[in-house]
Amino acid sequence: MSALTPSILPRAACPDPVFPAAMAGGLLAAATPAEPESTTTTTVSSLGKDLLLDIFLRLPNLPALVRAALACRTWLGAVRSSPSFRRLFHALHPAPLLGIFLETDGICIPTFVPVRRFDPDVAVSLRRGDFFLTSLPAEGDASRGWLLDDCRGGRALLWNALHGSLAALNPMTWAVDSLPMPPVDFMAETRNFLGFHLLYSDEKPSSFRVVCICADASRVRAAVFSSETWDWAINPWVEIGGNNSLKCKTSTLVGDSVYWPCHGEAHMIRIDATTMDVTTVDLPSQAKVEWHNCKAGETKDGGLCIAHVSADFLLQVWTHSVDGDGIQSWIPHKAISLGAQVDRITEGFQGDLKVVQVRDGTAYLSRTMMTPSGLLCCWFFSLCLETMELDLLIQGRYDGRGYPYIMAWPPSLVGDEAPELEGSE
């Protein structure tokens, strides 16, 4: 039998190497393999909740957080069970503006124009959503005549005056609720319908309320619909004094209150949608209301503010303050002359500058003009109330009535317990 090569000798036939005694504690110790230690595999799924939420705070925006939270049940549960995290994330990363719903004369349904179509995170949301509003009821010719009254909490509130229909539609989820109109006697006694407003809660996104405001010569009246009771609560008339100078679609919802500037005057009406208290709020002396030149709005932290633009395009902003004795006042925030910037963007065409909305610390403005050839053109801007930087969002041929659509927290990311997700790990 042939001899075995040393490389495959049995272990017993190979003598252990002999090292000098002086090396016993050095090289020998280094050459001898250490006993293996027990190890525990660490994965991203095993991160503690606090560390996980701290990592999530570093995500760039809300769409990125949605994708991350839906990756597994543990991550989703961490986001759902922490209202404080959601508030902090919103403060660091305000929900993105996805686009503008435009109302154009001669078009039977509002048109959506995206404003961040090249943002990959936003583009995914836009592709999956129902921004053509195809979910609206369309029996017979009921698809005609839909008007937009509010966009809030991810929902668009539309009503159809031709058919007496009201609907709340979420373009992101394709969910649509066909709502009952206010009672006939409520509408029949009204000389001046002022509009609808949509109220919602960040911590209870599955439910909402709708406020309908009407007025006559010297009084206002409100009806409130609740998605939980599916019924309207009718409130009594309230005297506001003087001649009614409230105009349709000039109001703003801030918190749980609706603010209506009084045309030609230096005050506005405040209607608390919870208590139905109606009060008069004086405006700064410089802020005389003339149609759409003055709007109440909300600062980045949800406080009340006023944005007023003069005929020479001077935009002034005041924030509302209440001292320890309950005395209310308006504090000048910032002022900026927009004439040169707007004229440069609109190439010198003449037209008034309107305050469309003030939401989450951003003022939305529009300028409309008729060209010599008879074309109606409009420019839609956004202005950050902190930096006072003006950005052009849309330029096109429409009449200037626009409603910013801001991405809301998905209901799946709000709650105490994570839902069962098929395929989650």
Question: What labels describe this entry?
Answer:
425 residues, mainly beta, Neuraminidase, five-stranded antiparallel beta sheet, four-stranded antiparallel beta sheet, 8 helices, 24 strands, disordered N terminus, AT5G49610-like_b-prop, F-box-like_dom_sf, F-box protein AT5G49610-like beta-propeller domain-containing protein
In summary, what is this structure?
With about 425 residues, the protein is mostly beta strands. The protein has helices at about 25-30, 50-55, 60-70, 75-80, 85-90, 120-130, 185-190, 340-345, and strands at about 95-105, 110-115, 145-150, 155-160, 165-170, 175-180, 190-200, 205-215, 220-225, 230-235, 240, 250-255, 255-260, 265-270, 280, 295-300, 305-310, 315-320, 330-335, 355-360, 360-370, 375-385, 390-395, 400-405.
